[in-house]
Amino acid sequence: MEQFRPMRIGILGATGPAGAGLAARLASVGHEVLFGSRAVDKAKTAVDQLQAQWGERVNGLIPCDNAWACDAPVVILAVNADSVIPTVREQAERLAGKIVVSMANNLTRNGNEFNAVLPPHGSVAAEIQALLWRSRVVTAFHLVPAAEFADLNHSMESDVVVLGDDDEAREALMEITASIPNLRALDGGSLRNAVGMETFAAVLLTINVRHKMKASLRLTTI
Ligand SMILES: NC(=O)c1ccc[n+]([C@@H]2O[C@H](COP(=O)([O-])OP(=O)(O)OC[C@H]3O[C@@H](n4cnc5c(N)ncnc54)[C@H](OP(=O)(O)O)[C@@H]3O)[C@@H](O)[C@H]2O)c1
Questions:
Q1: Does any ligand 1 atom lie closer than 6 A to the CB of residue 104?
Q2: What average pLDDT does this structure show over 143-172?
Q3: Which of 3, 7, 11, 24 is nearest to 147 (CA)?
Q4: What is the pLDDT of residues 115-146, one digit of tens each?
Q5: CB–CB of 134/188 below 8 Å?
Q6: Does residue 107 line the site of ligand 1, with CB under 6 A?
Q7: What DSSP line would sit under 55-114, residue for residue?
Q8: Which terminal Cβ of the chain has fewer Cβ within 10 Å, N or C?
Q9: What is the value of pTM for the model shown?
Q10: CATH of domain 8-210
Q11: β-strands 107-110, 136-139: how paired?
């Protein structure tokens, strides 16, 4: 396994499937994870459940409220997509100077098709960066199903495209991503491309519904 620096990582809305799965996976490889929720008791209950399931493998999980989770140098926004903008507005002061990670896919479902709902700045990520002008916003994990993170007995199989305008922040997130065995981190460029990832999430979910499958992203080299 490649060497990596264990990091302190905050997750807002860590009680949902995506946040909890990602938190457990990050803790299992040695990161310290501030497991955030709007309600500390809810975070404690979720962490107790994960520790009952995985034991010492998730010792690095620390239950807390979302404000406390912003104490980490890298903060992942795992609240439901509708609540990302109000949440970053509420935490903007605490997130100043931090690497802030959007994984939000703001989607609507019309029958057996999903579509991305894109805000005025063109993507949820760009909208967040416009609000958090003192933070370094990156995006990642858009296409990784929560269930893939959650089962620590199964190795990951996805590729993760990381985007961001700040080179150092993007590289830091790629290092965190690559600290999870078999999760390949790929540099997809600046936040301008976030529209592509958020929209492709709608395409991927549509494929999954129409073909009755559970696909994630893996790029092949030819
Ligand atoms: N699920 C997936 O497979 C997947 C895959 C890729 C990307 N994503 C993205 O990851 C994010 C989380 O997905 P999810 O499925 O885990 O979401 P979720 O279960 O719908 O919500 C996650 C958490 O958001 C918090 N929340 C709910 N309403 C809120 C509000 N009004 N204000 C602030 N926080 C609120 C809740 O935490 P508390 O009650 O503890 O505060 C909840 O547990 C989304 O942006 C989604 O697009 C998901």
A1: yes
A2: 97
A3: 24
A4: 999 999 999 999 999 999 999 999 999 999 99
A5: no
A6: no
A7: GGGGTTEEEEEHHHHTTSSEEEE-S-GGGHHHHHHHHHHHHTTSEEEE----EEEETTEE
A8: C
A9: 0.98
A10: 3.40.50.720
A11: unpaired
